[in-house]
Amino acid sequence: MQIWVDADACPVVIRDILFRAAERTGVIMTLVANKPVRLPALPHVRFIQVPAGFDAADKRIVELLSVGDLVITADVPLAAAVIEKGGTALNPRGELYTQENVRERLSVRNFLDELRGSGVNTGGPAALSQRERQMFANQLDRLLARHSKTVSRRGPQE
Questions:
Q1: b/e map of 39-77 (b: 16 or more CB within 10 Å)?
Q2: Which pTM does this prediction carry?
Q3: Which of 6, 39, 67, 146 could form a disulfide with 86 if both were Cys (CB 3.0 to 4.6 A apart)?
Q4: Concatenated DSSP letters for 91-146?
């Protein structure tokens, strides 16, 4: 398993949690963004810069994603593509996207886009709370622990 981060909109506090997890577990983590991102000097953390453009980072993540990889994103269409390709998607608020809830979230997102397109101010997302940061860290730990158990049962070469 690798961790892919949609880094253009990923909060710094969530990146810090991810960096600590990558350091602790040795899981390869790649941040993908269209502008440079500050990274710690860790052997398992990488960065891919994509050209500026609509969904360029999302497209690159989906292209490189393997079955079983984890993607950190608040972008619902990217989460849907990740799930379709056999990956796992987790948003920075600690919510795990599933086959069931991603369809509902896509519908809500599309509805809000229509409202905004007609001139309605729908506001933006609320600031990330301490509770949501903790939910994210806990969900990430669960996913990494599950991965670790799978690897130890199969052996590291698989």
A1: eeeeebbeeebbeeeeebbbebbbeebeeebbbbbbbbb
A2: 0.85
A3: 67
A4: -TTSPEE-HHHHHHHHHHHHHHHHHHHTT-----PPPPPHHHHHHHHHHHHHHHHH
| Nearest residue to 94 via CA among 128, 124, 132 | 132
* pLDDT tens per residue, range 50-106: 999 888 999 999 999 999 999 999 999 999 999 999 999 999 999 999 988 887 777
pLDDT digits (tens, 9 = 90+) for 13-40: 999 999 999 999 999 999 999 999 999 9
What is the DSSP code (8-state) at residue 80? H
**Distance in angstroms (rounded) separating the CA atoms of residues 122 and 156:** 48
